[in-house]
Amino acid sequence: MIKFLNLKKINERYRSEIDLRIKKVLDSGWYILGNECKVFEENFAKYIGAKHCIGCANGLDALNLIIRAYGFSQGDEIIVPANTYIASILAISQNGCTPVLVEPDIETYNINPDLIEEKITDKTKAIMVVHLYGQAVQMQKITEIAKRHNLKIIEDSAQAHGSVLNGVKCGVLGDASGFSFYPGKNLGALGDGGCVTTNDDELAKKIRAIANYGSDYKYHHIYKGTNSRLDEIQAAILDVKLKYLDDDNNRRREISKYFRENIKNSNIILPKTHHEMSHVWHIFAVRVCNRDDFQKYLEERGIQTNIHYPTPPHKQGAYVEWQNAKYPITEKIHDEIISIPMSPVLDDIEVEKIVEVINGYKL
Ligand SMILES: *Cc1c(COP(=O)(O)O)cnc(C)c1O
After folding, report:
1. Which residue's CA is minimally distant from atom 2 of ligand 1?
2. Ligand 1 atom at minimum distance from 58 CA
3. What's the 131 CA to ligand 1 centre distance in angstroms?
4. Mind listing the pLDDT tens digit for each residue in 99-155?
5. What span, in angstroms and rounded, lies between the C-alpha atoms of 256 and 97?
6. Ligand 1 centroid vs 59 CA: distance in angstroms?
7. Distance CA 10, CA 242 (A)
8. DSSP labels for 297-339?
């Protein structure tokens, strides 16, 4: 059986290093907001090319903290792609803001820049771009629109650790960016974790305070803050794994290239990328019109798959207000998309088998 994602195998490669770092934290007697978190924040900021990195509890909180620190609230609108993972949209709702859904481009699965401007009103405060599946959003048009309308750009980089657009990493392509270190992400902890990256000094200071009970220094509270912190053990583990992120991403790129060059089946629509570096292949999603049948076919031949995502946000019970809304491109993607195994620990034999089995699929 080729697993969709073998997390044990991914982390096993670093076991001795991780064991040592966990032991160090245990021995230190300091478990929250200590040196490990500080060191990881510095290293991740350097990796991304950002002035600031602020650790927090998870990716949803990272996005939530950004919106909260900007002071966006009830009545404010934030533009977001309709086909994203629901967390992007929840972060907007949690602040009382209204998510304004925009259809994606069917080629890239990222927000269609040509459909943004018609959705802007005098209430619009920000555009949230989501680098879906690990592919950096082409930012040029969006940056121009944001400038023209005085909007902030918030990046959801939860799937795009290490994607590079024209030499600039996801995480500094907008005003502020949220990352997730959920175990299955390209840079994953052994539990929950997240961070915000930004070049904005004021925003960074405010987010750091809000995430720590609104406190700028001990027992001094200037905001009605929350508790969202990256703990020392997770920070230490992430600091070990960060060193290998580029190698892992390059292995994903290599596998993706092999898939794209060797899967030859007219029933399967393969993903595309503008540039090999602008995608980190968090997910390798293909489209097929008879998805359930295809999934069963692969399962029967020992290949596990997953669907990102089976139901679009506007069809979820959580958002009944959108139940009659129509987003045909989003719906088409959700009906046809299926993710095949993709991870740095797939070996060549597994990769070849996946290609062979997919090439043998008949409708
Ligand atoms: C994983 C993910 C999140 C949320 O991250 P958590 O750490 O699970 O809260 C947000 N947006 C996208 C696109 C994601 O894939």
Report:
1. 158
2. 7
3. 11
4. 999 999 999 999 999 999 999 999 999 999 999 999 999 999 999 999 999 999 999
5. 37
6. 5
7. 13
8. HHHHTTB--B-S-SS-GGGSGGGGGGTT---HHHHHHHHHEEE
